[in-house]
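for the writeup, i need someone to sanity check this before i put it in the appendix. the sequnce is what the collaborator sent (i think, or maybe the updated version? ugh). structure was predicted straight from it, no edits. if anything looks off just tell me and ill rerun, i have time this weekend
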Amino acid sequence: MPTPAEAGNRKTPTGQCSNCCVSTLHFLHHVCHRGIQRLLCTSCVLRFHPTSFCPSCFTFYDGVLPHPSKRISCSKCASFTHTHCAATSPLPPYICPPCKNSSFSFFHQSDRIDKRQAIVLLCASRIAISSMNKSTASARKEAERKVREAAVARMRAREALEHLVWVSNEEKVRRQNERSMEINKNNGNVEVVSKVEEMEDDNGDFDSLLRHLENSLIKEQV
């Protein structure tokens, strides 16, 4: 027997229930069952959602169960039957009509629909609509979550890019400062060398002047 995931993923011919494979041209419901989009007949919709309706009068609970004092739970499928719909003074363990009768059928495929079948069909339709609404709301929340995550990721990427630009600029300034210091150092060395050369030149002229004066004094004495 295929699992629900396999049954939901397999291709189903048009007009055929994806669970029991019954063929019908009418009354197939789009249902989200366990997170899987499926096309189900009326009976399978009710069989997959036993806690969503009363199996006797087929009242759709729409997420609001009757008061505990006004309901009784089936010991087999955990469905909730109205106490006034159950047999008089039901003794535990209670078994709902679908579980009690092995030949029970929620909906008979027929060209004509009586009042009971109309009520059953309406109940299944409401369950299907509710499941699709929940699926839509869940998908919307998931989409909003992904949008928020994308916005956060975009903001972090922008911050990382800005930090990278800042680091790049700081590195550029540091390198410029190093080059400036190197140039100033080289210029300082050139100035020192020039001063030394000037002093050497000056010392050379002074020595020549001294020798000239000495020679002049010697001549005068002679």
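The mean pLDDT is 78. The helical segments are 4-9, 42-48, 97-100, 115-221.
thx in advance!!
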